[in-house]
Amino acid sequence: MRKYDTRAIEKLQKETSIIENNGVKIIxxxxxxxxxxxxxxxxxxxxxxxxxxxGNLGGEEPAASPPLEILLPIIRDAMGxxxxxxxxxxxxxxxxxxxxxxNTVGLWRYYPRKSQQNTKRLALVFxxxxxxxxxxxxxxxxxxxxxxxxxxxxxFNVDYSLAPEKPYPNGLNDNFYAVKHVYDHAEAYGIDPExxxxxxxxxxxxxxxxxxxxxxxEGTPKIAMQVLIYPCVIMSDTHLDGYExxxxxxxxxKEQNDIIKNFLTLGRPAxxxxxxxxxxxxxSKKEDKLHPYVSPALAESHDGLPKTVLAGAExxxxxxxxxxxxxxxxxxxxxxxxxxxxxxxxxxxDKLGHVAQAEDLCxxxxxxxxxx
Length: 372
What we know:
Layout: H1 7-14, E1 17-21, E2 24-29, H2 42-49, H3 68-78, E3 91-98, E4 105-112, E5 121-127, H4 141-151, E6 153-159, H5 170-184, H6 186-189, E7 191-201, H7 203-218, E8 225-229, H8 257-261, H9 277-282, H10 286-289, E9 307-315, H11 319-331, E10 336-345, H12 356-370
Parallel strand pairs: 2-10, 5-6, 5-7, 7-8, 8-9, 9-10
Antiparallel strand pairs: 1-2, 3-4, 4-6
Helix pairs in contact: 1-12, 4-12, 5-7
């Protein structure tokens, strides 16, 4: 089920342009129904105006800044978006649990039934977003299933540990060992061990980048490609030479100025005395925030990392990090493709079936996988 005409997909696929940002060539995806610069995609805007978010609080604000432990259930319930299954073929779903990381981690996998006799399928191990403290495998399930169909692949969806109950390095270890488990059991899963990709959105993108670094450093598991969707690669209060964040990097109309500015909070560098409650729940020690497995942009070298696809939203504060990381990877000789989706905001893949851009990104990821 789609809430848009398929001509929107055609426009996203055929009417791209190339822009340059800080020496990086960015593939700019159009807003299918909005050509004016500085405006949100109309479908994105309508979803906001309808107040249609999952877990919506009905306009009620919690009383004066309660501690995170009080806010946590509210925040978790408010994450995600009710999306749609766009598959046109039968997708098999399997579930298992792994414990090699010391935690019990749920591992879902999806694959087209028609391809189950193929013993050398592509694979993608995906980590959902949610600021390290929330999110759900269920929010990204339809996204993962569509990639499984489009790429004729096995897609794994990792139900990793969340902070603050399980802080760093729990989530990282859960995801790293999930990938290692898939790699070590490639034959049993019917996948090609030379064509295993990792991916994630937001905090999940952070995990995907960190897992790729750790795998490179340890020499295993072998990762063929990383897919980083509006990833956090620099903790909000961590400074990095050469990295700059400014509202001036974003073009927005006077009419939508106040609306758009609300979406630029993520990625905005915090003042020294301020804290990012999500990041601080995951990593409380300053020295850990400087570790490249927490802030992948701080790695001494990005040499030897796998082929990379990055995707950012025009009106997402993390877009600056996304495109800066693309620059770091390109300078290290990593084959890198970077997309920017005009008019979109953070977490747009959660709206699969509502906005054409989420489906388009599935197509781009599948196409990139098929080149491996």
